[in-house]
């Protein structure tokens, strides 16, 4: 019993460390992309935001279509593309 608890604790510590590393990498990537987006001119940011919003909507439409055709891997792919495009579009400031 003690051995099982020790291995469970080690497992949890290992995965918590991995989670924190991923979380930090996401934070670093987000700040890098925001700096790149903010360096663009206002017109460029508007065009990029519009393109990403279009990609977001189109990808989610394709995901739903793929799901209705029982093509789960493609539905997942388009869903992920749509979500990322949506997050990127929301991160672009137009001020």
Search tags:
single chain, 95 residues, mainly alpha, 2 domains, 3 helices, 89% helix, flat
Overview of this structure, please?
The protein has 95 residues and is an all-alpha fold. The chain folds into two domains: 1-39; 41-95, no CATH class. It is built from three helices and no strands. The chain has helices spanning 2-39, 42-68, 72-91. The longest helix has 38 residues, at 2-39.
Topology:
Layout: H1 2-39, H2 42-68, H3 72-91
Helix pairs in contact: 2-3
Task: Give the gist of this structure.
By secondary structure, the chain is mostly helical. It has helices at 2-39, 42-68, 72-91. The relative contact order is 0.11.
Strand content: under 5%
Averaged pLDDT: 87
Structural class: mainly alpha
Number of helices: 3
Overall, the morphology is: flat
Largest sheet: none
Number of strands: 0
Q: Count the domains.
A: 2
> Portion of residues in helices?
over 70%
- For the terminal residues, how far apart are their CA atoms? 60 Å
From the alpha carbons, calculate the radius of gyration and give it in angstroms.
20 Å
Order of helices and strands: HHH
């Amino acid at each position: 019993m003690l051995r099982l608890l020790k291995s469970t604790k080690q497992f949890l510590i290992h995965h918590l460390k991995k989670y924190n590393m991923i979380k930090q990498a996401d934070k670093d990537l987000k700040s890098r992309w925001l700096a790149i987006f903010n360096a663009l001119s206002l017109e460029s940011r508007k065009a990029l935001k519009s393109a990403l919003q279009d990609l977001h909507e189109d990808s989610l439409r394709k995901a739903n279509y793929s799901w209705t055709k029982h093509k789960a891997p493609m539905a997942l792919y388009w869903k992920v593309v749509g979500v990322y495009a949506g997050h990127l579009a929301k991160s672009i400031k137009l001020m």
